[in-house]
Specification:
Blueprint: E1 66-72, H1 85-94, E2 96-101, H2 107-117, E3 123-127, H3 131-138, H4 145-152, H5 156-159, H6 162-167, E4 177-179, H7 185-191, E5 199-204, H8 205-210, H9 219-232, E6 235-236, E7 239-240, E8 242-245, H10 266-270, E9 276-277, E10 280-281, H11 288-302, H12 309-312, H13 315-323, E11 327-333, H14 338-347, E12 353-355, E13 369-370, E14 378-382, H15 389-400, H16 402-410, E15 417-420, E16 423-426, H17 428-436, H18 438-444, H19 472-478, E17 482-483, H20 498-519, H21 523-540, H22 542-563
Parallel strand pairs: 1-2, 1-3, 8-11, 13-17
Antiparallel strand pairs: 3-14, 4-14, 5-11, 5-12, 6-7, 9-10, 15-16
Helix pairs in contact: 4-15, 9-11, 13-14, 15-16, 17-18, 20-21, 20-22
Biased composition (Low complexity): 29-54
Protein name: Extracellular solute-binding protein
Region (Disordered): 29-57
Length: 565
Protein backbone atom coordinates (compact mmCIF):
# COMPACT_ATOMS: atom_id res chain seq x y z
CA UNK A 1 0.00 0.00 0.00
CA UNK A 2 1.03 0.75 -5.23
CA UNK A 3 1.09 1.19 -3.82
CA UNK A 4 3.48 -1.00 -3.50
CA UNK A 5 2.49 -2.61 -0.83
CA UNK A 6 1.81 -3.00 0.53
CA UNK A 7 2.72 -5.12 2.62
CA UNK A 8 1.27 -6.46 5.85
CA UNK A 9 0.81 -9.49 8.00
CA UNK A 10 -0.97 -7.95 10.93
CA UNK A 11 -4.34 -6.42 11.58
CA UNK A 12 -2.54 -3.12 11.23
CA UNK A 13 -2.50 -3.72 7.53
CA UNK A 14 -6.21 -3.48 7.71
CA UNK A 15 -6.52 0.22 7.42
CA UNK A 16 -3.86 0.70 4.83
CA UNK A 17 -5.02 3.11 2.46
CA UNK A 18 -4.22 2.18 -0.57
CA UNK A 19 -4.50 5.55 -1.94
CA UNK A 20 -2.58 4.11 -4.74
CA UNK A 21 -3.87 4.76 -8.17
CA UNK A 22 -3.69 2.09 -10.85
CA UNK A 23 -5.80 -0.62 -12.48
CA UNK A 24 -8.74 -0.37 -14.81
CA UNK A 25 -11.93 1.62 -14.68
CA UNK A 26 -15.38 0.20 -15.02
CA UNK A 27 -16.52 2.78 -17.53
CA UNK A 28 -18.82 5.72 -17.07
CA UNK A 29 -22.16 5.85 -15.40
CA UNK A 30 -23.50 3.81 -12.53
CA UNK A 31 -22.98 0.09 -12.42
CA UNK A 32 -25.71 -2.49 -11.80
CA UNK A 33 -26.40 -3.25 -8.17
CA UNK A 34 -25.03 -6.55 -6.93
CA UNK A 35 -28.57 -7.38 -5.92
CA UNK A 36 -29.47 -7.43 -9.60
CA UNK A 37 -27.00 -9.81 -11.26
CA UNK A 38 -26.09 -9.24 -14.87
CA UNK A 39 -28.31 -10.87 -17.46
CA UNK A 40 -25.26 -11.48 -19.64
CA UNK A 41 -24.49 -14.96 -20.92
CA UNK A 42 -23.11 -17.16 -18.17
CA UNK A 43 -19.54 -18.26 -18.93
CA UNK A 44 -19.44 -20.01 -15.58
CA UNK A 45 -22.36 -22.31 -16.29
CA UNK A 46 -21.33 -25.71 -17.59
CA UNK A 47 -23.87 -27.91 -15.80
CA UNK A 48 -27.51 -27.57 -14.84
CA UNK A 49 -27.91 -25.22 -11.90
CA UNK A 50 -28.38 -27.08 -8.61
CA UNK A 51 -31.14 -26.11 -6.24
CA UNK A 52 -30.01 -23.21 -4.10
CA UNK A 53 -31.49 -21.31 -1.18
CA UNK A 54 -30.89 -17.57 -1.20
CA UNK A 55 -31.69 -17.35 2.51
CA UNK A 56 -29.20 -19.95 3.70
CA UNK A 57 -25.37 -19.79 3.57
CA UNK A 58 -24.43 -21.99 0.62
CA UNK A 59 -21.35 -23.49 2.25
CA UNK A 60 -23.53 -25.41 4.72
CA UNK A 61 -24.97 -27.55 1.91
CA UNK A 62 -21.65 -29.26 1.21
CA UNK A 63 -18.83 -29.69 3.72
CA UNK A 64 -17.03 -32.61 2.09
CA UNK A 65 -13.23 -32.24 2.13
CA UNK A 66 -11.80 -30.19 -0.73
CA UNK A 67 -8.48 -28.42 -1.21
CA UNK A 68 -8.22 -25.19 -3.19
CA UNK A 69 -4.97 -23.79 -4.55
CA UNK A 70 -4.82 -20.09 -3.65
CA UNK A 71 -2.21 -17.81 -5.20
CA UNK A 72 -1.08 -14.79 -3.14
CA UNK A 73 0.92 -12.22 -5.09
CA UNK A 74 2.98 -11.28 -2.02
CA UNK A 75 6.35 -12.95 -1.68
CA UNK A 76 6.62 -11.92 1.98
CA UNK A 77 3.53 -13.84 3.14
CA UNK A 78 4.90 -16.43 5.60
CA UNK A 79 1.93 -18.46 6.83
CA UNK A 80 0.57 -21.90 5.89
CA UNK A 81 -3.05 -22.97 6.18
CA UNK A 82 -3.71 -25.78 8.63
CA UNK A 83 -0.82 -25.08 11.00
CA UNK A 84 -2.76 -22.85 13.40
CA UNK A 85 -5.96 -23.30 15.39
CA UNK A 86 -8.12 -20.90 13.34
CA UNK A 87 -7.46 -22.37 9.90
CA UNK A 88 -7.88 -25.88 11.33
CA UNK A 89 -11.24 -24.79 12.77
CA UNK A 90 -12.44 -23.30 9.47
CA UNK A 91 -11.44 -26.43 7.56
CA UNK A 92 -13.26 -28.63 10.07
CA UNK A 93 -16.32 -26.40 9.80
CA UNK A 94 -16.50 -25.89 6.01
CA UNK A 95 -14.51 -28.83 4.66
CA UNK A 96 -12.25 -26.43 2.77
CA UNK A 97 -8.48 -26.75 2.98
CA UNK A 98 -6.16 -24.25 1.31
CA UNK A 99 -2.82 -24.72 -0.37
CA UNK A 100 -1.26 -21.27 -0.56
CA UNK A 101 1.03 -20.57 -3.50
CA UNK A 102 3.41 -17.68 -2.84
CA UNK A 103 6.12 -16.48 -5.26
CA UNK A 104 9.66 -17.06 -4.08
CA UNK A 105 10.99 -13.98 -5.83
CA UNK A 106 9.62 -11.31 -8.14
CA UNK A 107 5.83 -11.34 -7.91
CA UNK A 108 5.22 -9.90 -11.38
CA UNK A 109 7.43 -12.49 -13.04
CA UNK A 110 5.62 -15.35 -11.30
CA UNK A 111 2.15 -14.00 -12.07
CA UNK A 112 2.94 -13.13 -15.69
CA UNK A 113 4.34 -16.63 -16.20
CA UNK A 114 1.13 -18.16 -14.90
CA UNK A 115 -0.99 -15.88 -17.09
CA UNK A 116 1.12 -16.73 -20.13
CA UNK A 117 0.62 -20.44 -19.43
CA UNK A 118 -3.13 -19.94 -19.71
CA UNK A 119 -3.81 -21.79 -16.46
CA UNK A 120 -4.32 -20.27 -13.01
CA UNK A 121 -4.82 -21.65 -9.48
CA UNK A 122 -8.37 -21.78 -8.08
CA UNK A 123 -8.19 -18.43 -6.24
CA UNK A 124 -5.95 -15.45 -6.95
CA UNK A 125 -5.35 -12.54 -4.55
CA UNK A 126 -3.35 -9.50 -5.63
CA UNK A 127 -3.32 -5.74 -5.28
CA UNK A 128 -6.29 -4.17 -7.06
CA UNK A 129 -3.83 -1.78 -8.71
CA UNK A 130 -1.90 -4.55 -10.47
CA UNK A 131 -1.99 -4.59 -14.27
CA UNK A 132 -2.54 -8.35 -14.11
CA UNK A 133 -6.11 -7.83 -12.86
CA UNK A 134 -7.16 -6.40 -16.20
CA UNK A 135 -5.12 -8.97 -18.11
CA UNK A 136 -6.93 -11.83 -16.40
CA UNK A 137 -10.36 -10.29 -16.92
CA UNK A 138 -9.79 -9.38 -20.56
CA UNK A 139 -8.24 -12.78 -21.21
CA UNK A 140 -11.34 -14.47 -19.76
CA UNK A 141 -9.11 -16.29 -17.29
CA UNK A 142 -11.32 -15.48 -14.29
CA UNK A 143 -15.04 -15.98 -13.75
CA UNK A 144 -17.67 -13.30 -13.05
CA UNK A 145 -18.56 -13.60 -9.38
CA UNK A 146 -22.10 -12.36 -9.93
CA UNK A 147 -22.82 -15.17 -12.39
CA UNK A 148 -21.28 -17.78 -10.11
CA UNK A 149 -23.34 -16.48 -7.21
CA UNK A 150 -26.55 -16.36 -9.23
CA UNK A 151 -26.14 -20.00 -10.25
CA UNK A 152 -24.57 -21.60 -7.22
CA UNK A 153 -24.96 -19.35 -4.15
CA UNK A 154 -27.41 -16.42 -4.29
CA UNK A 155 -26.75 -15.97 -0.55
CA UNK A 156 -23.64 -14.11 -1.77
CA UNK A 157 -25.82 -11.12 -2.61
CA UNK A 158 -27.01 -10.95 1.01
CA UNK A 159 -23.49 -10.65 2.40
CA UNK A 160 -21.71 -8.73 -0.38
CA UNK A 161 -21.58 -4.93 -0.11
CA UNK A 162 -23.46 -3.41 -3.10
CA UNK A 163 -21.13 -0.39 -3.11
CA UNK A 164 -18.10 -2.66 -3.50
CA UNK A 165 -19.60 -4.87 -6.18
CA UNK A 166 -20.84 -1.78 -8.03
CA UNK A 167 -17.38 -0.23 -7.83
CA UNK A 168 -15.76 -3.32 -9.35
CA UNK A 169 -18.39 -3.91 -12.03
CA UNK A 170 -16.82 -3.85 -15.50
CA UNK A 171 -18.21 -2.57 -18.80
CA UNK A 172 -19.68 -6.00 -19.52
CA UNK A 173 -21.90 -5.70 -16.45
CA UNK A 174 -19.99 -8.29 -14.43
CA UNK A 175 -17.66 -8.02 -11.45
CA UNK A 176 -14.77 -10.44 -11.15
CA UNK A 177 -13.06 -9.56 -7.88
CA UNK A 178 -14.04 -8.74 -4.32
CA UNK A 179 -11.86 -6.45 -2.19
CA UNK A 180 -10.56 -6.62 1.34
CA UNK A 181 -9.99 -3.63 3.66
CA UNK A 182 -12.48 -1.63 1.60
CA UNK A 183 -14.42 1.39 2.86
CA UNK A 184 -17.16 3.12 0.93
CA UNK A 185 -18.29 6.74 1.42
CA UNK A 186 -21.08 5.35 3.61
CA UNK A 187 -18.46 3.60 5.73
CA UNK A 188 -16.68 6.93 6.24
CA UNK A 189 -19.89 8.42 7.58
CA UNK A 190 -20.37 5.50 9.94
CA UNK A 191 -16.82 4.65 11.01
CA UNK A 192 -14.72 7.60 9.82
CA UNK A 193 -13.66 8.84 13.23
CA UNK A 194 -11.98 5.48 13.82
CA UNK A 195 -10.12 5.41 10.51
CA UNK A 196 -6.36 5.64 10.57
CA UNK A 197 -3.71 5.75 7.88
CA UNK A 198 -0.76 3.48 7.28
CA UNK A 199 1.39 6.41 6.14
CA UNK A 200 3.77 7.65 8.79
CA UNK A 201 7.08 9.37 9.41
CA UNK A 202 8.78 7.30 12.09
CA UNK A 203 11.83 8.07 14.25
CA UNK A 204 13.69 6.07 16.87
CA UNK A 205 12.34 7.45 20.12
CA UNK A 206 15.53 7.50 22.19
CA UNK A 207 17.61 9.13 19.45
CA UNK A 208 14.93 11.69 18.61
CA UNK A 209 14.56 12.70 22.24
CA UNK A 210 18.33 12.83 22.75
CA UNK A 211 18.50 15.33 19.87
CA UNK A 212 15.91 17.53 21.60
CA UNK A 213 12.89 16.43 19.52
CA UNK A 214 13.91 18.48 16.47
CA UNK A 215 11.35 19.91 14.06
CA UNK A 216 11.73 17.82 10.89
CA UNK A 217 8.83 19.39 9.02
CA UNK A 218 11.01 22.01 7.33
CA UNK A 219 13.70 21.21 4.80
CA UNK A 220 16.38 22.84 6.94
CA UNK A 221 15.22 21.07 10.10
CA UNK A 222 14.97 17.75 8.28
CA UNK A 223 18.56 17.89 7.07
CA UNK A 224 19.88 19.20 10.40
CA UNK A 225 18.22 16.36 12.31
CA UNK A 226 19.58 13.66 10.00
CA UNK A 227 23.04 15.20 10.25
CA UNK A 228 22.87 15.44 14.06
CA UNK A 229 21.69 11.84 14.35
CA UNK A 230 24.57 10.55 12.25
CA UNK A 231 27.09 12.55 14.27
CA UNK A 232 25.70 11.64 17.70
CA UNK A 233 24.89 8.00 16.89
CA UNK A 234 27.35 6.89 14.18
CA UNK A 235 26.84 3.22 15.03
CA UNK A 236 24.13 0.94 16.36
CA UNK A 237 25.54 -2.17 18.00
CA UNK A 238 28.67 -1.94 15.88
CA UNK A 239 26.77 -1.35 12.61
CA UNK A 240 26.60 2.03 10.81
CA UNK A 241 23.48 4.11 11.52
CA UNK A 242 21.17 4.56 8.53
CA UNK A 243 19.94 8.16 8.93
CA UNK A 244 16.88 7.78 6.68
CA UNK A 245 14.86 4.78 5.55
CA UNK A 246 12.42 4.61 2.65
CA UNK A 247 10.34 1.93 0.99
CA UNK A 248 12.25 -0.23 -1.45
CA UNK A 249 13.15 1.04 -4.89
CA UNK A 250 11.58 -0.84 -7.79
CA UNK A 251 11.13 -0.50 -11.53
CA UNK A 252 8.55 2.28 -11.15
CA UNK A 253 10.13 4.28 -8.35
CA UNK A 254 9.63 4.25 -4.60
CA UNK A 255 6.33 4.51 -2.75
CA UNK A 256 7.83 6.82 -0.13
CA UNK A 257 8.67 9.43 -2.74
CA UNK A 258 6.59 8.73 -5.81
CA UNK A 259 5.13 5.66 -7.41
CA UNK A 260 5.20 4.94 -11.10
CA UNK A 261 1.52 5.77 -11.52
CA UNK A 262 2.55 9.41 -11.12
CA UNK A 263 -0.34 10.08 -8.79
CA UNK A 264 0.43 8.88 -5.32
CA UNK A 265 3.30 8.95 -2.90
CA UNK A 266 3.68 9.30 0.82
CA UNK A 267 5.79 12.43 0.46
CA UNK A 268 3.15 14.13 -1.66
CA UNK A 269 0.48 13.31 0.91
CA UNK A 270 2.66 14.64 3.73
CA UNK A 271 3.05 17.84 1.71
CA UNK A 272 -0.75 17.99 1.28
CA UNK A 273 -0.42 18.30 -2.48
CA UNK A 274 -3.90 18.20 -4.02
CA UNK A 275 -5.00 15.45 -6.39
CA UNK A 276 -7.18 17.85 -8.32
CA UNK A 277 -7.63 21.55 -8.96
CA UNK A 278 -10.79 23.15 -10.31
CA UNK A 279 -12.34 19.73 -10.84
CA UNK A 280 -9.46 18.49 -13.01
CA UNK A 281 -6.67 16.09 -12.11
CA UNK A 282 -3.51 17.84 -10.96
CA UNK A 283 -0.02 16.75 -11.98
CA UNK A 284 1.30 16.16 -8.48
CA UNK A 285 4.68 14.94 -9.70
CA UNK A 286 5.68 18.39 -10.97
CA UNK A 287 4.31 20.37 -8.02
CA UNK A 288 6.94 22.92 -6.87
CA UNK A 289 6.68 21.85 -3.22
CA UNK A 290 7.29 18.22 -4.16
CA UNK A 291 10.22 19.03 -6.45
CA UNK A 292 11.74 21.24 -3.77
CA UNK A 293 11.58 18.41 -1.22
CA UNK A 294 13.08 15.97 -3.70
CA UNK A 295 16.00 18.37 -3.93
CA UNK A 296 16.23 18.22 -0.15
CA UNK A 297 16.62 14.46 -0.39
CA UNK A 298 19.29 15.06 -3.02
CA UNK A 299 21.04 17.43 -0.63
CA UNK A 300 20.85 14.77 2.06
CA UNK A 301 22.75 12.41 -0.22
CA UNK A 302 25.34 15.09 -0.94
CA UNK A 303 25.81 15.44 2.84
CA UNK A 304 26.35 11.69 3.19
CA UNK A 305 22.97 11.13 4.84
CA UNK A 306 21.50 8.64 2.35
CA UNK A 307 23.11 5.26 2.92
CA UNK A 308 23.72 3.04 -0.11
CA UNK A 309 21.56 0.41 1.61
CA UNK A 310 18.32 2.23 0.85
CA UNK A 311 18.85 1.98 -2.90
CA UNK A 312 19.42 -1.78 -2.93
CA UNK A 313 17.69 -3.33 0.09
CA UNK A 314 14.48 -5.26 -0.36
CA UNK A 315 11.89 -5.74 2.34
CA UNK A 316 13.54 -8.72 4.11
CA UNK A 317 16.80 -6.77 4.47
CA UNK A 318 14.93 -3.71 5.66
CA UNK A 319 12.99 -5.69 8.24
CA UNK A 320 16.24 -7.08 9.61
CA UNK A 321 17.70 -3.59 9.97
CA UNK A 322 14.51 -2.20 11.52
CA UNK A 323 14.64 -5.01 14.08
CA UNK A 324 18.22 -3.94 14.84
CA UNK A 325 17.10 -0.33 15.29
CA UNK A 326 19.58 0.85 12.66
CA UNK A 327 17.39 3.54 11.09
CA UNK A 328 17.03 6.94 12.71
CA UNK A 329 14.04 8.10 10.65
CA UNK A 330 11.76 6.39 8.14
CA UNK A 331 9.14 7.63 5.70
CA UNK A 332 7.37 4.30 5.81
CA UNK A 333 4.10 2.44 6.29
CA UNK A 334 3.74 1.73 9.99
CA UNK A 335 2.21 -1.72 9.57
CA UNK A 336 5.12 -2.85 7.41
CA UNK A 337 7.39 -2.47 10.42
CA UNK A 338 4.90 -3.43 13.15
CA UNK A 339 6.35 -6.85 14.00
CA UNK A 340 9.87 -5.48 14.28
CA UNK A 341 8.66 -2.52 16.35
CA UNK A 342 6.91 -4.87 18.77
CA UNK A 343 10.17 -6.80 19.18
CA UNK A 344 12.10 -3.61 19.85
CA UNK A 345 9.49 -2.50 22.38
CA UNK A 346 9.72 -5.77 24.27
CA UNK A 347 13.47 -5.29 24.65
CA UNK A 348 13.44 -1.57 25.45
CA UNK A 349 10.40 0.74 25.11
CA UNK A 350 12.72 3.72 24.64
CA UNK A 351 14.26 2.24 21.50
CA UNK A 352 10.95 1.86 19.73
CA UNK A 353 9.92 3.79 16.60
CA UNK A 354 7.30 6.48 17.05
CA UNK A 355 5.43 8.69 14.58
CA UNK A 356 6.21 12.41 14.53
CA UNK A 357 5.47 15.32 12.23
CA UNK A 358 7.40 14.77 9.03
CA UNK A 359 7.99 16.79 5.87
CA UNK A 360 5.42 19.56 5.40
CA UNK A 361 4.77 22.16 2.74
CA UNK A 362 5.88 25.76 3.07
CA UNK A 363 2.47 26.76 4.47
CA UNK A 364 2.76 24.12 7.20
CA UNK A 365 -0.55 22.56 6.12
CA UNK A 366 -1.50 19.34 7.90
CA UNK A 367 -0.78 16.20 5.88
CA UNK A 368 -3.55 14.50 3.93
CA UNK A 369 -2.80 10.84 4.50
CA UNK A 370 -4.37 7.99 2.60
CA UNK A 371 -7.10 6.24 4.54
CA UNK A 372 -9.12 3.20 3.55
CA UNK A 373 -10.82 3.55 0.17
CA UNK A 374 -13.54 1.77 -1.74
CA UNK A 375 -10.95 -0.15 -3.77
CA UNK A 376 -9.49 -1.64 -0.61
CA UNK A 377 -6.04 -3.21 -0.62
CA UNK A 378 -6.36 -6.46 -2.56
CA UNK A 379 -8.94 -8.18 -4.73
CA UNK A 380 -9.64 -11.91 -4.83
CA UNK A 381 -10.71 -13.59 -8.05
CA UNK A 382 -11.82 -17.11 -8.99
CA UNK A 383 -10.06 -18.76 -11.93
CA UNK A 384 -11.86 -20.30 -14.90
CA UNK A 385 -9.82 -23.40 -14.05
CA UNK A 386 -11.28 -23.65 -10.53
CA UNK A 387 -11.84 -27.29 -9.63
CA UNK A 388 -15.31 -26.73 -8.14
CA UNK A 389 -17.23 -23.56 -9.04
CA UNK A 390 -20.00 -24.12 -6.52
CA UNK A 391 -17.70 -24.75 -3.54
CA UNK A 392 -15.49 -21.83 -4.55
CA UNK A 393 -18.21 -19.16 -4.62
CA UNK A 394 -19.81 -20.60 -1.48
CA UNK A 395 -16.49 -20.41 0.36
CA UNK A 396 -15.98 -16.85 -0.89
CA UNK A 397 -19.47 -15.93 0.37
CA UNK A 398 -18.60 -17.41 3.76
CA UNK A 399 -15.32 -15.50 3.96
CA UNK A 400 -16.89 -12.10 3.23
CA UNK A 401 -19.85 -12.67 5.55
CA UNK A 402 -19.95 -11.56 9.17
CA UNK A 403 -19.71 -15.19 10.23
CA UNK A 404 -16.58 -15.75 8.14
CA UNK A 405 -14.95 -12.52 9.23
CA UNK A 406 -15.64 -13.32 12.87
CA UNK A 407 -14.10 -16.76 12.44
CA UNK A 408 -11.04 -15.28 10.73
CA UNK A 409 -10.67 -12.57 13.34
CA UNK A 410 -11.58 -14.24 16.64
CA UNK A 411 -10.97 -17.87 15.71
CA UNK A 412 -12.72 -20.72 17.54
CA UNK A 413 -14.66 -20.02 20.70
CA UNK A 414 -12.99 -21.51 23.75
CA UNK A 415 -9.65 -21.70 21.95
CA UNK A 416 -8.68 -18.14 21.04
CA UNK A 417 -11.74 -16.22 22.29
CA UNK A 418 -14.60 -16.41 24.72
CA UNK A 419 -17.56 -14.32 25.78
CA UNK A 420 -16.07 -12.21 28.58
CA UNK A 421 -18.18 -9.63 30.40
CA UNK A 422 -20.87 -10.09 27.79
CA UNK A 423 -18.54 -9.41 24.86
CA UNK A 424 -16.91 -11.82 22.43
CA UNK A 425 -13.20 -11.10 22.75
CA UNK A 426 -9.77 -12.69 22.77
CA UNK A 427 -8.84 -14.65 25.86
CA UNK A 428 -6.29 -12.72 27.98
CA UNK A 429 -3.39 -15.06 27.26
CA UNK A 430 -4.15 -14.97 23.53
CA UNK A 431 -4.26 -11.17 23.44
CA UNK A 432 -1.04 -11.03 25.43
CA UNK A 433 0.76 -13.21 22.86
CA UNK A 434 -0.66 -11.19 19.97
CA UNK A 435 0.69 -7.97 21.47
CA UNK A 436 4.08 -9.41 22.33
CA UNK A 437 4.95 -11.79 19.49
CA UNK A 438 2.79 -11.53 16.41
CA UNK A 439 4.69 -14.20 14.50
CA UNK A 440 4.24 -16.76 17.29
CA UNK A 441 0.58 -15.74 17.58
CA UNK A 442 0.02 -16.34 13.86
CA UNK A 443 1.49 -19.80 14.02
CA UNK A 444 -0.35 -20.85 17.18
CA UNK A 445 -3.75 -19.22 16.83
CA UNK A 446 -3.92 -17.82 13.27
CA UNK A 447 -6.68 -15.37 14.19
CA UNK A 448 -6.77 -11.54 14.10
CA UNK A 449 -6.77 -11.80 10.30
CA UNK A 450 -3.58 -13.78 9.95
CA UNK A 451 -5.42 -14.74 6.77
CA UNK A 452 -6.45 -11.29 5.55
CA UNK A 453 -7.54 -12.05 1.98
CA UNK A 454 -11.22 -11.15 2.51
CA UNK A 455 -11.04 -9.23 5.78
CA UNK A 456 -13.62 -6.50 6.38
CA UNK A 457 -11.83 -3.90 8.46
CA UNK A 458 -15.04 -2.11 9.41
CA UNK A 459 -16.91 -5.23 10.43
CA UNK A 460 -14.06 -6.26 12.70
CA UNK A 461 -14.30 -3.09 14.81
CA UNK A 462 -16.94 -4.82 16.95
CA UNK A 463 -14.39 -7.44 18.02
CA UNK A 464 -11.07 -5.59 17.90
CA UNK A 465 -9.39 -4.92 21.25
CA UNK A 466 -8.02 -1.45 21.98
CA UNK A 467 -4.58 -0.83 20.49
CA UNK A 468 -1.61 -1.01 22.83
CA UNK A 469 1.94 0.28 22.53
CA UNK A 470 3.93 0.34 20.38
CA UNK A 471 1.10 0.06 17.85
CA UNK A 472 -1.13 2.67 19.48
CA UNK A 473 1.06 5.76 19.18
CA UNK A 474 1.68 5.67 15.39
CA UNK A 475 -1.94 4.72 14.83
CA UNK A 476 -3.28 7.58 16.96
CA UNK A 477 -0.92 10.05 15.28
CA UNK A 478 -2.68 9.54 11.94
CA UNK A 479 -6.20 10.19 13.26
CA UNK A 480 -7.67 13.40 11.93
CA UNK A 481 -5.15 13.42 9.08
CA UNK A 482 -6.72 10.52 7.20
CA UNK A 483 -8.65 11.08 3.97
CA UNK A 484 -10.46 8.95 1.42
CA UNK A 485 -9.03 9.10 -2.09
CA UNK A 486 -11.42 6.57 -3.61
CA UNK A 487 -12.29 8.81 -6.54
CA UNK A 488 -8.69 8.58 -7.77
CA UNK A 489 -8.53 4.78 -7.66
CA UNK A 490 -8.78 2.72 -10.82
CA UNK A 491 -8.07 5.65 -13.13
CA UNK A 492 -4.85 4.46 -14.71
CA UNK A 493 -4.87 2.74 -18.10
CA UNK A 494 -3.51 -0.80 -18.06
CA UNK A 495 -3.04 -3.71 -20.41
CA UNK A 496 -1.94 -3.56 -24.02
CA UNK A 497 -3.97 -0.52 -25.07
CA UNK A 498 -2.00 2.44 -26.38
CA UNK A 499 -2.65 4.35 -23.17
CA UNK A 500 -1.87 1.30 -21.04
CA UNK A 501 1.51 0.77 -22.66
CA UNK A 502 2.27 4.49 -22.37
CA UNK A 503 1.45 4.44 -18.68
CA UNK A 504 3.70 1.46 -18.12
CA UNK A 505 6.52 3.18 -20.00
CA UNK A 506 6.13 6.38 -17.98
CA UNK A 507 6.31 4.42 -14.74
CA UNK A 508 9.53 2.79 -15.87
CA UNK A 509 10.95 6.16 -16.88
CA UNK A 510 10.34 7.44 -13.37
CA UNK A 511 11.84 4.28 -11.89
CA UNK A 512 15.07 5.04 -13.72
CA UNK A 513 15.02 8.79 -13.09
CA UNK A 514 14.36 8.79 -9.34
CA UNK A 515 17.67 7.29 -8.15
CA UNK A 516 19.53 9.59 -10.57
CA UNK A 517 17.73 12.61 -9.12
CA UNK A 518 18.69 11.68 -5.57
CA UNK A 519 22.28 10.92 -6.56
CA UNK A 520 22.72 14.10 -8.63
CA UNK A 521 25.78 16.10 -7.62
CA UNK A 522 24.03 19.47 -7.77
CA UNK A 523 20.63 21.08 -8.11
CA UNK A 524 21.46 22.04 -11.67
CA UNK A 525 22.19 18.40 -12.54
CA UNK A 526 18.92 17.48 -10.79
CA UNK A 527 17.07 20.00 -12.99
CA UNK A 528 18.59 18.52 -16.14
CA UNK A 529 17.54 14.99 -15.15
CA UNK A 530 14.04 16.12 -14.17
CA UNK A 531 13.58 18.10 -17.40
CA UNK A 532 14.65 15.09 -19.44
CA UNK A 533 12.22 12.89 -17.53
CA UNK A 534 9.35 15.25 -18.34
CA UNK A 535 10.28 15.35 -22.03
CA UNK A 536 10.60 11.57 -22.16
CA UNK A 537 7.27 11.30 -20.38
CA UNK A 538 5.60 13.51 -22.96
CA UNK A 539 7.17 11.54 -25.79
CA UNK A 540 5.90 8.30 -24.25
CA UNK A 541 2.29 9.51 -24.49
CA UNK A 542 1.63 11.38 -21.25
CA UNK A 543 -1.13 13.51 -22.83
CA UNK A 544 -3.08 10.39 -23.85
CA UNK A 545 -2.67 8.89 -20.41
CA UNK A 546 -4.00 12.06 -18.79
CA UNK A 547 -7.02 12.12 -21.09
CA UNK A 548 -7.80 8.54 -20.11
CA UNK A 549 -7.34 9.30 -16.41
CA UNK A 550 -9.57 12.37 -16.64
CA UNK A 551 -12.42 10.36 -18.16
CA UNK A 552 -11.99 7.58 -15.60
CA UNK A 553 -11.92 10.15 -12.79
CA UNK A 554 -15.20 11.65 -13.99
CA UNK A 555 -16.72 8.16 -14.20
CA UNK A 556 -15.59 7.43 -10.65
CA UNK A 557 -17.25 10.58 -9.37
CA UNK A 558 -20.52 9.60 -11.04
CA UNK A 559 -20.33 6.08 -9.65
CA UNK A 560 -19.59 7.28 -6.11
CA UNK A 561 -22.43 9.80 -6.31
CA UNK A 562 -24.79 7.06 -7.43
CA UNK A 563 -24.16 4.58 -4.62
CA UNK A 564 -23.78 7.37 -2.04
CA UNK A 565 -27.42 8.41 -2.42
Amino acid sequence: MRKPRKTLTTLLALVTAFSITACSTSGSGSAPSSAEPSKAADPAAQTAAPAVNADEPGWKSDTKPITFDWYLNFSWFPNKWGVDATSQYITKKTGVNINFIVPAGNENEKLNTMIASGKLPDFITLGWYEDAVKKMIEGKMVLPLNELAKQYDPYFFKVADPAKTSWYTQKDGNFYGYPNASSSPQDYKKYGENFVSNQTFMVRKDMYEALGKPDMSTQEGFLAALKAAKEKFPEVNGQPLIPLGLHEFNEVGNYSLLAGDQNSSMLQNFLSIPYEKDGKLYDRSTDPEFVSWLKTFRKANEMGLLAKDIFIDKRPQMEEKIAQGRYFAMLYQRSDMANQNISLYQKDPNKVYIAVDGPANSKKDAPTLAGPGISGWTVTLISKDVKDKARAIKFLSYLISEEGNKDLYLGEKGVSYDTINGKDQFKPEVLDLMNKDRSAFDKKYGSSFTFWMLMDTNMNLQWAPPSVEPIKQPEEWTKGKTKSFSQYDNINPTGTSEEGMAHTKIGQLWGKALPKLLLAKSDSEFDQIFDKYQKDRDAAGFAKVRDYQEQAFEANNKKIAEFSK
